[in-house]
Amino acid sequence: MANEKRVVFKSAWLPWVLIAPQVIVISVFFFWPAAQALMQSVQQSDAFGTSVEFVGLDNFRNLWNDASYLASFKTTAVFSALVAVLGLSISLMLAIFADRVVKGSGIYRTFLIWPYAVAPAVAGVLWLFMFAPSIGIVSYGIRALGANWDPLLNSNHAMALIVMAAVWKQLSYNFLFFLAGLQSIPKSLIEAASMDGARPWRRFWTIQFPLLSPTTFFLLVINVVYAFFDTFAIVDAATKGGPGKDTAILVYKVYFDGFKAMDLGGSAAQSVVLMVIVVALTVVQFRFVEKKVNY
């Protein structure tokens, strides 16, 4: 049994100095905003923040009586599930193809990495232009096939638009991790299975995919958080929560109620609920999904 190696610092204060920068960053950009949100969620203020009144849990009660807010839960669930499942599936498929490419592999991988450099707002505008009913090149092709496409009026089309934009934006990130995971698998295992007569599909499900389970679990957590938080700019640029409020996911509704409707207390309460949901989903994934991960 290998002996456990530990790093022993001669000074008691040196470890605290080393982690101090990270603690400061987390405190300033996470704990302080979270504390502010918790404080504002039990208060009610005017649009300018000049008068503040303590209202307790009234902001949370108002949320459960708001039909549009409850509808945004379903919208967010559908959107996040589609983004996570499609994003992981497509990126895994692309990583498998990239791992098998011999000639021109650098160019192929570079093209797949490029989308990650695009800002979320730019990604939303890009896909909106491609699928715009009047000038979009993709919409033109859809109409040429005899179908109608209008994400500005059709809720299903609008949801499909933001899902495609969000998946495309995250593909590069997922692709990089899946490709790194595939390249870390010893080629001798694949060659041995091939010599035993295992076909490519069986080699993937019995060897490669189980060994990719840590990477898949990590990306699942990251993609769920991404769908809940980082897709705000895509929704704002592409649909602005429309048509109506059919694509208003929870994070967009926090912004709309806080900065458009000027309901600061209600917006803060929504952000607290959203934070609790994401933390709970992460804990559930680590508690139950991680049990099936082979390290």
From TrEMBL:
The chain crosses the membrane at residues 12-32, 77-98, 110-138, 158-182, 203-229, 268-289. Keywords: Cell inner membrane, Cell membrane, Membrane, Transmembrane, Transmembrane helix, Transport. It comes from the Bacteria. It is found in: Cell inner membrane; Cell membrane. The keyword Transmembrane applies. Residues 73-285 form the ABC transmembrane type-1 domain. Coiled coil: none annotated. It is a multi-pass membrane protein. Its main location: membrane. The complex is composed of two ATP-binding proteins (UgpC), two transmembrane proteins (UgpA and UgpE) and a solute-binding protein (UgpB). Belongs to the binding-protein-dependent transport system permease family. This is sn-glycerol-3-phosphate transport system permease protein UgpA.
